[in-house]
């Protein structure tokens, strides 16, 4: 996912400039977490290390603005994945599963919710199991059904 709007690029430029205190055109990789937080992006230390290792190939410990934009892009993409995961988990819990990804959803309840909200979900695998008494779906099955 790219920094898609000129507003995103301008905001990224402002944050970058705030951390480029010596006007060298670079920021230190240690400053990335704080810079990303100013952009409203939150990453784990592991994600940050992985991204920096992909972007700072010469291992200089500093990033120029274009490299910084690559980090921002990756953080935005990770944020979208996290948001999707959180939404999936929220739906799972609302249907009877547990927020820690344990438990199961009764397939009858799931089929009813899909029909009630007119969701575009392929019910074929679910309907095949509905003939089984007390059929249920765990979190991984629910996530797979949603195509995630």
Task: Explain the overall architecture.
One of its GO terms (cellular component) is myosin II complex. InterPro entries: CALM/Myosin/TropC-like, EF-hand-dom_pair, EF_hand_dom. Keywords: Repeat. The chain is mostly helical and 148 residues long. Helices cover 58% and strands 7% of the residues. The strands form 2 sheets. It has a two-stranded antiparallel ribbon. The protein is elongated and about 70 Å long. The mean pLDDT is 79.
Q: In angstroms, what is the radius of gyration?
A: 21 Å
CATH third-level topology of the largest domain = Recoverin, domain 1
Largest sheet: 2 strands, antiparallel
Taking the alpha carbons of the first and last residues, their distance comes to 17 Å
InterPro entries: CALM/Myosin/TropC-like, EF-hand-dom_pair, EF_hand_dom
Protein name: EF-hand domain-containing protein
GO cellular component, one term: myosin II complex
Keywords: Repeat
